Structures are given as C-alpha cells and as structure tokens.
C-alpha cells in the first residue's frame, strides 16, 4: 500500500488551512505568514504572547503598521523588500529594536518565500528568534573571561616577584653562612627556586591555563636555563629536539620542572670540571596520547669499573614524584659515553636519544 501524501490527504482547502495553522501554532518561536503585499495572513500563538498583541490587532494588517509602526524597521525592510525577492530565503538576519511593550530586543529573523503551483502569488514565512538574553550571557561570559585573564596576569606577576625575593634571601644566606655544606645546600635551593621561576615565566609566555605547545615551551625554558646556569663561562651546549606536541599547562609545568632538575644534575655531575666541553640534549616526542621526555648528556657518565649508586638526593626525589603524578616511569642509562634519563608515559615506543 502506497503511503498517503499531504496532497492526497488534504484535498479540502479548509483541512489544509487547519494543518498549516496548526504547524504555525506549534512552533515555539514567533512566526508570521505574510502575503505579497506584506499583510499578515496568520500569526503563531508565540507571536501574540511574545509581543503582547492580539489577533484583532494583527490579522490582515500590513506588517509595517503593526503596533503603531514598531515593525517599520529599516533592516527588516531590506530583508523583505530586497533580500527575500532575490534569494527566496534568509537565515539569522540580526535586528535590534526597541519594541513598545517588551523593551529592547535583539532578534534573529529567518524568512522563506513559498511559491505555489500555477503562479498564484507567493507567501513569506517570517520566523523570529529572540536572542537578547543569549547575547547578554555571552557578553557577561566574555567580561568574566577578561577579568580572569587580568587576575591571572596579576597572580603571575606576584608569583614571579615572590620567587625572586625568596631566591635573593636564600642567596644572601648562602653567602653569610660559615659551613660549606650548608652553603652548598642553600645554593642548590636557590637554583631550584630560580628554576621554578623560569618554568612559570615560560608557561606564562606560552599562555598558562590552556594547552601548551611543548617544543617552543621547552626551547624557551632551556634558553633561560642556559643563560642562568651555563652562561658564557662554560663550553656546554643545551639543545631541544623531538617532534613536540601539545599538553595541558599543569602537565607542561611538571615537564618543565623535570627538565630543569635533570639539566641541573647534568651540569653538576656529568661535567664537574667547568672547563670541559659537553652537550645536553632535551628530547620530547609524542605518539597519540603517549609521550617520552629524555635528557641526555655526553659527560663522564658511569665509570667503566662498576657503578655504585649513592643515596637519592632531593633532585632525584623531585623527579620521581613529578613522574608519578604524570603516570610515567623513570629510566636511567649511564655509561662511559654519558647518561640518559627517560620519563616515559604509558607504552610509548622505545626511541634511543643520545647526545651528538
């Protein structure tokens, strides 16, 4: 049995009219049905309730005379007199207007020209979506985001100043103490505070709080570390390689702290003679959601006649703790050619990264 279409089902004009009016009334947004002279043939119930007018004030009247001329809007005239005849359809045409009964409103107008068989004129369907509240909420959201950015900027500034003050105090204490062991510990503490300041600075430059592009972030961080820890007095090259990738700012912060600790360790242990030439390579690669960070050097590495690991220091503890937070494992390979420390997340395929 063939399905019965609307043409066959509604052969009586009155029935077809009832269906059309039912469809118009069912639509939640205000709708007007206009003839070729832009007179109102029909209006939806939502139109009457939204604009607080009655059917008697609306039916059969010219659109531009409704409500003491409240619809005589220049942008609406452009829509109905020019755009609709040319295109036959118009979507999301924004109109802002002060309506007498409901105040200022911003409407998105959607119009469509309906053609009939036999060329018996046309009808225009005009739908209206009130987007006033939505636009207000969007503006409020934008203002809140701007306020958040200002607060983050201020917070970053305060953190940077506080870290600088703490680092200066530690350095003054290191110069004042008599114990060499205490002085070394204070100097290490000073370097770590400065490393945190460097990480914060590079995160801020990369747009902290969002997604960080790792390759340029680590490159800028290592430039800062090279300037503060190597300078022009030590012949050591610090470089960044790898295919990069992106990471959330919190993950990027942990990666930056790990890199800083490993670079500090390499400078301290791999190149104890400050006149020795060397190279430290920071590599970061991604494969899907997995990643691998490694810091390699071509320093003194592991003695050929065995290796007796000493007790774990503060730097080792920091690296292990940060790696656990990142759900990553730490692996150290040391030999006569140098040392490589890898931080691997999940099942990243093994890749040998060695210093050149």
Computed over alpha carbons, the radius of gyration is: 36 Å
Number of domains: 2
Q: Any guess at the CATH architecture of the largest domain? A: 2-Layer Sandwich
- CATH superfamily label of the largest domain: Histidine kinase-like ATPase, C-terminal domain
> What spatial order of strands do you see in the largest sheet?
2-1-5-4-3
CATH fold name of the largest domain: Heat Shock Protein 90
If you had to describe this structure to a student in words, what would you say it looks like?
The chain has 356 residues and is an alpha+beta fold. Helices cover 46% and strands 24% of the residues. The protein has 2 domains: 6-130, 2-Layer Sandwich (Beta-Lactamase); 197-345, 2-Layer Sandwich (Heat Shock Protein 90). The strands form 3 sheets. The protein has a 5-stranded antiparallel sheet with strand order 2-1-5-4-3, sandwiched between helices. The chain has a 5-stranded mixed sheet with strand order 7-9-10-12-11, covered by helices on one side. It has a two-stranded antiparallel ribbon with strand order 6-8. The longest helix has 45 residues, at 132-176. The chain is elongated. The termini are far apart.
């Amino acid at each position: 049995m063939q399905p019965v279409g609307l043409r066959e089902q509604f052969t009586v004009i009155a029935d077809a009219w009832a269906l059309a009016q039912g469809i118009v009334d069912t639509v939640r947004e205000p709708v007007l049905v206009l003839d070729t002279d832009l007179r109102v043939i029909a209006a939806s119930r939502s139109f009457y309730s939204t604009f607080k007018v009655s059917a008697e004030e609306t039916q059969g009247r010219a659109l531009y005379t409704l409500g003491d001329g409240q619809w005589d809007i220049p942008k609406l005239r452009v829509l109905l007199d020019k755009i609709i005849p040319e295109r036959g359809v118009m979507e999301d045409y924004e109109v802002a207007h002060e309506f007498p009964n409901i105040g200022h409103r911003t409407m998105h107008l959607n119009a469509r020209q309906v053609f009939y068989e036999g060329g018996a004129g046309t009808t225009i369907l005009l739908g209206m979506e009130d987007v006033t509240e939505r636009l207000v909420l969007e503006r409020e959201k934008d203002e809140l985001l701007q306020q958040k950015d200002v607060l983050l900027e201020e917070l970053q500034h305060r953190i940077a100043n506080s870290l600088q003050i703490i680092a200066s105090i530690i350095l003054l204490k290191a110069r004042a103490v008599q114990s060499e062991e205490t002085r070394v510990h204070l100097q290490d503490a000073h370097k770590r505070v400065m490393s945190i300041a460097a990480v914060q600075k590079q995160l801020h430059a990369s747009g902290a709080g969002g997604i960080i592009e790792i390759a340029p972030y680590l490159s800028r961080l290592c430039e800062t570390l090279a300037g503060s820890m190597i300078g022009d007095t030590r012949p050591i090259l610090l470089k960044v390689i790898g295919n990069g990738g992106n990471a959330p700012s919190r993950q990027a912060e942990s990666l930056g702290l790990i890199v800083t600790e490993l670079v500090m360790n390499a400078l301290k242990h791999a190149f104890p003679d400050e006149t020795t030439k060397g190279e430290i390579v920071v590599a970061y690669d991604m494969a899907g959601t997995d990643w691998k960070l490694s810091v390699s050097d071509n320093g003194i590495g592991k003695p050929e006649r065995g290796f007796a690991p000493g007790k774990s220091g503060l730097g080792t503890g920091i690296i292990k703790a940060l790696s656990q937070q990142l759900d990553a494992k730490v692996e150290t390979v040391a030999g006569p050619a140098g040392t490589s420390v890898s931080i691997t997340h999940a099942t990243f395929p093994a890749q040998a990264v060695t210093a050149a």
